[in-house]
Write a structure and sequence with these properties.
By secondary structure, the protein is mainly alpha-helical. The chain has one domain.
Length: 339
């Protein structure tokens, strides 16, 4: 039966804070996994250089349909990995200091065609702090977005195909976060300058390759199913965060370990599987996904799965939205326990 056109409402607090406390109480050794992984910067250099080399190659040698194929089969995976690196930088998991992480994120952003690294950082941290709070969590689809897309295969396919555009429009509703600051402005200027340089130095075909790699990396592609995997309600019950334990974690810096990441946002990508290994009892009863490809087709073909298949709540760290919030209440729930 087709679900109602409204999000699932929960009066319970977000699920990760309690699980973090329980794991730390039973397994205090998990604290040793918290830290940074500077080797991630090395991977950033390799992937950025690889994407630029491929862009130069396609501009010089390939026909347009081969550019499309290469973007789908190779560029999408490279760009998705760069998105994960930007995510690591948002949590300061590459270097200890803020500025080196910001600069690494901006560097990783270069092959991604559009300037999103620093904007992502601001809104993503709100997502961790206020998971499911419609006015604060830009990871939630907007209501107009869910109404527009509906339940049809065509609508959901178009949503995935154009996901970068829909994602870029969501911050408009997050009133507490300014759209621009000095870092997002710098990110914009650097990215525009880089795109212009690619166009004039390597040619329009190279720029189109990078743009296609972007849209496939987070859109109508098995990798795009990650946006469904993380928080879409795909099982009966009250679970609202799901992990993915398939082989593509090897190409995406373990980004599928999403419950583990929300429980311990201060743990870098290379240690996320060790959280589950250290505390198997905390995750053994949680549903998870094994295939992004299978999930992609399920999302497209199942009319009961739609953008409405998300949990929303009206509290911010147990403070009602219409109550005044003091600066000390504006914290990241799970992460504050893990550091």
């Amino acid at each position: 039966m087709v679900s109602h056109d409204e999000f699932a409402f929960s009066t319970a607090p977000e699920p990760h804070r309690k699980r973090t406390k329980d794991i730390l109480r039973r397994h205090p050794e998990v604290r040793a996994l918290i830290g940074t992984n500077p080797n991630t910067f090395g991977w950033t250099v390799v992937i950025v250089a690889g994407q630029l080399a491929l862009a130069a190659f396609v501009a010089a040698r390939l026909s347009w349909w081969l550019v499309l194929a290469l973007a789908f089969c190779v560029g999408a995976f490279a760009n998705h990995a760069l998105f994960v690196i930007i995510h690591e930088c948002a949590h300061k998991l590459v270097f200890r200091r803020k500025v080196p992480n910001i600069l690494t994120a901006m560097f990783a952003n270069l092959p991604l065609f559009v300037p999103g690294a620093l904007s992502f950082q601001k809104y993503h941290l709100k997502h961790h702090a206020f998971q499911g709070v419609y006015e604060l969590d830009a990871d939630l689809p907007s209501r107009w977005e869910a109404r527009l897309i509906g339940h049809s295969v065509l609508g959901k396919s178009l949503w995935l195909l154009l996901f970068p555009i829909f994602q870029a429009l969501r911050p408009i509703r997050i009133k507490e976060v300014p759209l621009f600051d000095r870092w997002t402005t710098l990110n914009l200027l650097v990215q525009v300058g880089f795109d212009i340089a690619v166009y004039f130095v390597l040619g329009p075909k190279a720029l189109v390759y990078l743009a296609l790699s972007l849209f496939f990396s987070i859109g109508l592609h098995p990798l795009g199913a990650r946006w469904i995997q993380r928080h879409f309600i795909t099982t009966k019950g009250d679970q609202e965060t799901f992990s993915y334990y398939g082989f593509l974690n090897a190409l995406t810096f373990n980004v599928g370990y999403h419950n583990e990441h929300h429980d311990f946002p201060s743990v870098p990508w290379n240690h996320l599987p060790r959280i589950r290994a250290a505390a198997p009892e905390a995750y053994q009863d949680l549903s998870y996904h094994r295939s992004w490809t299978r999930l992609l087709f399920r999302f497209l073909l199942d009319p009961t799965l739609s953008l409405w298949s998300r949990v929303i709540r009206r509290n911010r760290n147990d403070v009602a939205l219409d109550a005044p919030v003091t600066p000390d209440q504006e914290v990241k729930p799970a992460e504050s326990l893990a550091v």
